[in-house]
Amino acid sequence: MIDQATVLREWVQMRQTQEDVKFAAGPPSASQPRSLLITSGKGGVGKTTLTLNLAEYLHQQGLNVCLIDASSGLSHLDLMSGLNAYWNLEHVVSGSRKLDEVFLKTNSGLGLLTGLNGMAQVGRRVPQRILEIVTQLREKLSQYDLLLIDAPCGQTQLYRRLMNAVDAVYLVTTLESTSLADTYSLLKHLWPTLNKTTRLELIFNRADTDSAEQTFRHFKQTMQQFLRQEVPLAAIIPEDPNFSQAVLQRRPYASLFLNGHAAESMENLADRTSRLVSRFRFSDR
Q: How would DSSP label each residue in 104-115?
C-alpha cells in the first residue's frame, strides 16, 4: 500500500523499489542530490522569493540546483523566474505529458519542477504509474547537486513526512508577532516527530539586524525552557524594496541587484548552505 506521501518521501530519499512496493533505505551515493526544504509557519513571509534567490546565489557559487515546487497552492516560482509552467507532474501522472516536457530551465540555468504536491495526492490511485515516474525522477535529478524545495505551510501528515525526508530545513519567519507565534507552534507540534538527523535552522526575513537578534534571543530562551530544544539562526535578511522590483520584472533579485541592501546577507546564507551541502555529501545518512 502506498500512502499519499510515498512519492515525496521515497523520491527525495532516493530509495530503491522492492517487490512489496516498499523502499529500502541506504546511504546516499555520490550521484544523489542533497535536499533542502524551505518552509514557514504561515504565508506572506517571503518564503518563495527567498527560495528562488538562494538558488540563484548557490548557482553563482557553482552548485547545480533544481527548484522544486511542493506547495499545496501556487508558489509562482515559474512566474518569478520569467517562465510559465503550463504543465507539471500531475500531467505526467495522467499520461498527457512526458517528464522531460515538465522540466524547465531558468535563464541562469536552474532546474525547475512544479506540481509535486499534486502528484503525491494521486499516489494511492495509480501506484504502478507513480513508481515508474519515481524511477524516472531519480535518473533526471541525479545531475543536480542540490534540490531546493519550496514547501507548503501547515502541520499535515504529508508535511511532517516531507520534513523528515530531507537533509536540512530552513524555517522562515518575520518579526511580526503572528509569524513568530506560528513558527513556535509549528516547532512545538513537529519537533517530537522530526528526524533527529535532519538539520533545522531559522531565518529572519525582512528584518533589521538589531531587532532580529534581540527577538532571536527571546525565542531561543522560550525554546529551551518549554521545548528543551535549540534552533540555530541561519541568517537575518534585511528589508529590501528591490525584491519587489525583481518580482515585477519577473527576474531574480540576485541577477538584478548585485549591490542591493540584502545582497550581502543572501550571499552569506548561500555560503552557509554550501557548507551544509558539502557536509551532507560526504556523510552517510
A: EE-TTS-EEE--
* CA gap 142, 11 in Å, rounded: 11
d(CA 47, CA 153): 10
Give the residue, 127 or 81, on which the prediction is more confident. Answer: 81
Residue 55 CB burial class (10 angstroms; 0-12, 13-18, ≥19): buried
Residue from 47, 30, 27 nearest 38 by CA = 47
Q: Which residues contact 139 (CB under 8 A, 6 or more apart)?
A: none
pLDDT(269) > 70: yes
Least confident of 26-35, 51-60, 171-180, 238-247: 26-35
pLDDT for position 116: 74
Contact 6, 263 (CB under 8 A): no
Question: Could you tell me the CA-to-CA distances from 68 to 59, 151, 163, 178 in Å, in that order?
Answer: 15, 8, 14, 27
**How far apart are alpha carbons 207 and 105 in whole angstroms?**
31
What does the alpha-carbon distance between residue 74 and residue 76 come to, in Å, rounded to a whole number? 5
Amino acid at 164: N
User: Could you tell me which residues are beta bridge partners of residue 105?
Assistant: 111
**How many CB atoms neighbour CB 246 within 10 A?**
22
At residue 131, the pLDDT reads 75
Q: What are the grid coordinates assigned to 63, written together?
A: 552548485
Helix (H, G, I), strand (E, B) or coil at 275: helix
